[in-house]
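Severity: low
Component: inverse-folding endpoint
Summary: output formatting inconsistent between runs
Steps to reproduce: submit the following structure tokens with default settings.
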């Protein structure tokens, strides 16, 4: 076998790249074992494995760590930290965020769809859970500035008699 081909296979193994089909057909194998990994990878047995989505990997000898915070996720592979869920979105899994339902995209990120919220405006209330705002019923006062959660109960309890 050619020295160049052996050297290429060796460096291919060292840098964690895939060996070509030709090198495998020629009988070359990677027998290199790792004791620590670069950031974005974790050690699985004696091999460095790219960090999967939903996890972060600091490298060295550390294992992969799930993005388990209430508003943390990671949708890419090979990452060293988790992302914050964006405002108007909720964490749908360790590897994804999903936009909150229409009218419930108020303020900070939510930990679940049920925690997506809206804040009522003066003269309005939420009559049915998950619906948008409705004009205040005649004879009632709707002060507004009430936070309503998508998965919660409606805000008719915030109607006060004797209003304008």
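Observed output (run 2 of 3):
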């Amino acid at each position: 076998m050619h020295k160049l081909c052996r050297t290429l296979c060796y460096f291919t193994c060292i840098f964690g790249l895939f060996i070509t089909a030709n090198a495998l057909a020629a009988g070359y194998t990677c027998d290199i074992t790792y004791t620590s990994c670069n950031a974005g990878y974790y050690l699985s047995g004696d091999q460095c494995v790219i960090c999967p989505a939903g996890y972060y990997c600091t490298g060295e000898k550390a294992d992969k760590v799930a993005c388990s915070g209430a508003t943390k996720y990671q949708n890419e592979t090979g990452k060293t930290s988790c992302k914050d869920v964006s405002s108007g979105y909720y964490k749908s899994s360790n590897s994804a965020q999903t936009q909150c339902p229409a009218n419930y995209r108020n303020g900070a990120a939510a930990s679940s769809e049920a925690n997506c919220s809206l804040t009522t405006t003066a003269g309005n209330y939420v009559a049915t859970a998950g619906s948008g705002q409705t004009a205040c019923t005649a004879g009632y006062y709707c002060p507004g500035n009430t936070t309503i959660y998508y998965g919660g109960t409606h805000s008719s309890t915030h109607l006060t008699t004797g209003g304008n």
